[in-house]
């Protein structure tokens, strides 16, 4: 999934490694993007070896970062990664993959969902429907546990199970709304500014 996320971000614009990590957190959220430099840089090297990205000096007009290396210090400046034509093709291949890895895990689903704007409608629908099936299965499993073991669970464990069940039910409703939007050919609308929610 890291490969898809990196190629997707570089498809938007060239970036330094540090900026890539920052954008991963922004786009995917801190939980889904909890990656270390120990996994980011080896993946960048592999993508480079595969010919999907290239590295070089910042392109003309790219804003300098706040901690840019001063001229004439002898230190190496920041490397900027850019997606290649082959990398764009690979990104499209990864986007159209709609197997279980795209909806079974939080990370896999989150990464694919983050790039839904660049994904074709049929693939989006397959991923959303697959995710809904998985969450419904999880929800039914939790209902089963609650009905069979509720009297054996302490109050806090029972609350934790109920919280998990509530989260599954919310996600199923959200997915059903997204699926309906996909079938109708409409895109989700950002929430309007609700003054009561911000207070």
Automatic annotation (TrEMBL):
Pfam families found in the cross-reference section: PadR
Family annotation (Gene3D superfamilies): Winged helix-like DNA-binding domain superfamily/Winged helix DNA-binding domain
Region of interest called Disordered, as start-end residue ranges on this chain: 179-199
Residues covered by the Transcription regulator PadR N-terminal domain: 6-93
Residues of the signal peptide: none
Top-level taxonomic group: Bacteria
Protein's name according to its UniProt entry: PadR family transcriptional regulator
């Amino acid at each position: 999934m890291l490969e898809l996320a990196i190629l997707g971000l570089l498809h938007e614009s060239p970036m330094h490694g540090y900026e890539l990590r920052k954008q991963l957190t922004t786009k995917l959220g801190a939980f889904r993007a909890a990656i270390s430099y120990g996994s980011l840089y080896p993946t960048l090297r592999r993508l480079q070896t595969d010919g999907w990205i290239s590295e070089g000096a910042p392109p003309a007009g790219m804003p300098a970062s706040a901690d840019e290396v001063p001229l004439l210090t002898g230190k190496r400046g920041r490397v900027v990664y850019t997606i290649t034509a082959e990398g764009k093709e690979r990104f499209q291949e990864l986007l159209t993959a709609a197997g279980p890895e795209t909806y079974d895990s939080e990370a896999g689903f989150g990464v694919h969902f983050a790039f839904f704007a660049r994904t074709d409608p049929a693939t989006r629908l397959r991923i959303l429907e697959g995710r809904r099936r998985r969450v419904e299965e999880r929800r039914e499993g939790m209902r089963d546990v609650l009905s069979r073991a509720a009297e054996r669970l302490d109050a806090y464990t029972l609350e934790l199970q109920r919280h998990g069940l509530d989260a599954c039910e919310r996600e199923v409703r959200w997915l059903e709304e997204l699926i309906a939007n996909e079938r109708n050919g409409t895109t989700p609308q950002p929430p309007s500014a609700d003054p009561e929610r911000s207070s």
